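Form 7-S
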Amino acid sequence: MYENGTIVVENGIFSGEVNATSGTFAGDISAASGTLGGFKIEQNKLISTNDINNPSIELNGVDGSIIANNIHLGTGAVIDQYIELGSARIQNPELEGSNNVFITAGNGALQMKDDGIANFGEITISGPESVILGDNFAIRPGLSEFNNVNISGTLKTSVFEVGTVQTVGGMMIFKEGAEIDGSITKIDGEENQYTFKTKEGSITNIKENSIILLTSKNNTTIR
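Output:
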């Protein structure tokens, strides 16, 4: 023991308490209880002491779990297996033996991968194929399929194929049409008589005394 209050001992056993304003320990420290900074020491646990009933962080040395109100993962953080967000899960792709990133929620109702394919329940969206598939429908670039379609606006198409047409409380009129090849020529000396030729491939079935509506490109109609 020195005059400045320094005590040097090789080994020591204290049966009571040791109080000090500061200290440096170069070896191991073993404690089954007590406090360390802002943490309470329990058997195999460190628990923050800011709120005993609802600690902001708890470190479990047995199962390796961390319970925290907020976690910030910096650059380079590695997910060994998965992160759970309620019923959702962000999973390490190596568990599936691929490079895909799996995000699942609701017992697989939501699945997203980095291969451009996402599953939302019964709906599959494929980016590489540009398709959306559902239980009773399919949307593809060349062909879409639906059981029923309600259109409140205008339906425009170059070809309309149908097996059965049904109307309720209204009337539907279908008129044959053809595209004229060339110009329309009025017959000299004849009133309201013209000659014209339809383009090859146009289907017409014009009978005698038929009324023909001729529409020009600027929507002018000649009857």
